[in-house]
Amino acid sequence: MTTSERINLHDLAPAQLSATVGEVVSPPFRAKQIEEWLHLRGASSFDAMTNIPKELRAQLAERFSAAFPEVIERTTPAADGSQKYLFVLEDGNRIESVYMPMTDRTSICLSSQAGCAVGCTFCVTGFFGAGRNLTPSEMTGQFFTIAHEHAVPMEQMNVVFMGMGEPLLNLDHVVTTLDVFYRSIAPKRITISTSGIIPGIEELAKLPRRPNLAVSINAPDQKRREEIMPITKKYPLGELIATLKRYPTEKGRELTAEYVLLAGWNDSISDAVALAKLLRGLNVKVNAIPFNEDANLPAWMKRPTDVAIDRFVSTLVRSGVHVTVRRSKGRDIAAACGQLRGKSEPRKRSRV
Ligand code: SF4
For residue 8, what are the contacts with CB-CB under 8 A and spacing of at least 6? Predict the structure, then answer.
């Protein structure tokens, strides 16, 4: 059997994994050991399972795979310690992930699709066009590979789905991936970032355990949001805000409204006032993200000055809005927000 013909056990949710492994393994404690190797320790080969008898490991390898995507490039760590990883998938697609160490925690930014069809005009992934959904093993694989390399304790680990792709357009696989992560990481340490896919947000709202939700807002009105986020035509801003008002947030948690600041376009005092008005009534904090310039993106898109950023933020604060400013990590290695591409050569923009 080739690797692609074997079931990759990392593609299975915890309950499915128990059933699948339990069918071929006895006694039951062996199945539990195998699950722990896969879901808690992120083993990517049966040979690594040193407390499992050799013959059983060989039998498992005949029927199943536990492979993760292969790292083909790592950047030298940036000044802030962040590091970008380029993975190749079995079908040749390439994706990127980012390791971001901080003083009290470490975040790993994962891709959920090999490309993105949403086509936000400020995003390099969108510029390079659509790709396929990633499988759970391709998402957990990014995480475990990077976590193992840096030997980060699980209790310090945060996971953010903010890399390539729109996670809510790959919801089934993302939910399976979350169920695996929940074995060792609390939901409050995991964040899903969306461009505002309303049906996906509604599905997420029904889950018994929910990650944090971040939504890209980026403009305080429908017309301007359509200009940089064409998805707004399908899911209008007013409906998105109404959906967020119905979204259940756990005690002590809040939604995040991401707002990419573009010089002279959405960073004025009146824009901040309009944004505060738009978000009124939501349990939300604004994460202001000064734009990261990139040669592939429209030349008019510029990063605002520090003065303009401070003016925008202080206007929001005066309007009673909770705000943080994302000083993007990894700018010098093109690993900051909206800069992931997974491909070395540009291709024609495509949208679905
Ligand atoms: S910002 Fe997110 S949703 Fe928009 S094009 Fe980029 S990856 Fe896709």
Answer: 64, 65, 66, 67, 135, 137
Which fold would CATH assign to domain 7-65? DNA polymerase; domain 1 (1.10.150)
Please provide the DSSP assignment of 227-252 as one string.
HH-THHHHS-HHHHHHHHHHS---TT
pLDDT tens digit string along 13-32? 999 999 999 888 888 899 99
Closest Cα to atom 4, ligand 1: which residue? 120
Q: Phi first, then psi: what are they for 96, rounded to 5°?
A: -125, 150
Q: How confident is the model at residue 4 (pLDDT cuts 50, 70, 90)?
A: low
Show which residues are catalytic.
96, 337
- Is the pLDDT at 343 greater than 90, yes or no? no
Query: Where do the domains of the chain lie?
Result: 7-65, 70-333
Amino acid at position 81, single letter: G
CATH number given to 70-333? 3.20.20.70
Token pair of 179 as six digits: 């169920």
- The response to whether residue 165 sits with its C-beta less than 6 Å from ligand 1 reads yes
Q: 120 CB less than 6 Å from ligand 1?
A: yes
